[in-house]
Design a protein that fits this description.
Blueprint: E1 6-10, H1 15-24, E2 30-33, H2 52-67, E3 70-80, H3 101-111, E4 119-129, E5 135-146, E6 162-164, H4 176-182, H5 184-197
Parallel strand pairs: 1-2, 1-3
Antiparallel strand pairs: 3-4, 4-5, 5-6
């Protein structure tokens, strides 16, 4: 740890999320640590609430209390309007706990076969929690539609099947820098970055 740098715990085991937070918060006087950097490693909190905000708050508070560190945690997901907002808060688990991202995308496309209205949005809520339980929230969303087939090699999760409104490319066809400017996590992360840049 660099002397004087503030340690911030990123409460996630998702390597894609961790990479994006390191990029979004780069240049700030912070040392980002992950749950696996801690000894003992805190248990992963459950994500069983009914909203993105409630899940983000629960995770951030649990990790902050367990670690004694200021913590960020997010809950994010894809809402497809033809599926009445599904997969929503269960985006990662909607098609099963051990289903690969590629299989999730294939199953989503199968559900939408022949559907004309493919409109969707990505939503992200980031919670910033202190060990005493105080929480601040930062949110972002991006609108688009579900592609007919996966495109692109970047990103993770549902990125290859989400076409950004007004752009025509999927989230997975963007560079990291482009993605952070328009994505749900990038927009929420920009608000978080502004807050952290003002002092922690």
């Amino acid at each position: 740890m660099t002397e004087g740098r503030h340690r911030l715990l990123v409460g996630s085991a998702n390597p894609g999320k961790l990479r994006e937070y390191r990029e979004i918060l780069s240049g700030l006087d912070l040392e980002l640590v992950t749950p696996t950097d801690l000894d003992p490693v805190p248990p992963e909190p459950a994500e069983d609430a009914a909203s993105f905000a409630e899940n983000a708050i629960a995770k951030a508070r649990a990790y902050a209390a367990a670690s004694g560190l200021q913590t960020i945690a997010d809950d994010s997901g894809l809402e497809v309007f033809a599926l009445r907002g599904a997969p929503g808060v269960r985006s990662r688990r909607y098609f099963g706990e051990d289903v690969s991202p590629e299989e999730r995308n294939a199953r989503l496309l199968a559900l939408l076969e022949g559907v004309q209205d493919r409109s969707a949005r990505f939503v992200c809520v980031i919670a910033l929690a202190t060990p005493d339980g105080h929480v601040e929230l930062f949110d972002g969303e991006v609108h688009g539609e579900i592609a007919e087939a996966p495109r692109g090699d970047g990103g993770f999760g549902y990125d290859p099947v989400f076409v950004i409104a007004g752009d025509g490319r999927t989230m997975a066809e963007l560079t990291a820098e482009e993605k952070h400017r328009v994505s749900h996590r990038g927009l929420a992360g920009a608000k978080l970055r502004a807050r952290l840049a003002g002092g922690v």
